[in-house]
Amino acid sequence: MMIEQNPMDERRKGSAPLDETRLRQRAIGVKLRQMFDEVVNEPVPDEFLDILRKADDKTGDR
Fold first, then answer.
1. Rounded-to-integer distance, Cα 3 and Cα 59, Å
2. Of the N and C termini of the chain, which has fewer Cβ atoms inside 10 Å?
3. Is this model's pTM higher than 0.85 or not?
4. CA distances (Å), 54 to each of 30, 42, 45, 57, 59, in order?
């Protein structure tokens, strides 16, 4: 007696690495968004704001 394999079983075996890859990519994406949000929400240092103000003053003189 020959046992037939279900084609869906073969797809599931092949998709396990794909599922793992997708989960890793999703986790990386979530972490990158968190890091970006942290950087965007950091306050601008006063020294940098002073530099920008001075640059604006110089361009306003023209």
1. 81
2. N
3. no
4. 38, 22, 15, 5, 9
